[in-house]
Write a structure and sequence with these properties.
mainly beta; 1 helix; five-stranded antiparallel β-sheet; 4% helix
């Protein structure tokens, strides 16, 4: 028997759906954030690079560092603080 794939985007048919009429603007990809700014994780399905894991969708946190073109966001999950690396098109300012 063949084992089922457990890839990065499994079980996300509805979660990462994008209507064909809704296309992201270029400014969404060129956004700049400041360290300490609050952001929400809102994934952009058309861009696979720098996309956080799907269980973090809708969570909010603070930007603690910029690393290259990406940002490191600190998010509280239960009692733990997690650091998520994400590109700006997947983040939304609060």
């Amino acid at each position: 028997m063949v084992r089922k794939s457990k890839g990065f985007r499994t079980s996300t048919r509805n979660k990462l759906r994008q209507l064909p009429s809704v296309r992201p603007t270029i400014t969404k990809f060129l956004r700049e954030f400041d360290v300490g700014q609050s952001v929400a994780i809102e994934m952009e399905p058309s861009s696979h690079k720098g996309m956080p894991y799907s269980k973090f969708k809708g969570l909010s946190g603070k930007i603690i560092e910029k690393r290259g073109e990406s940002y490191i966001v600190a998010i509280r999950v239960g009692d733990m603080m997690k650091k998520i690396i994400s590109r700006p098109e997947h983040l939304k300012p609060i």
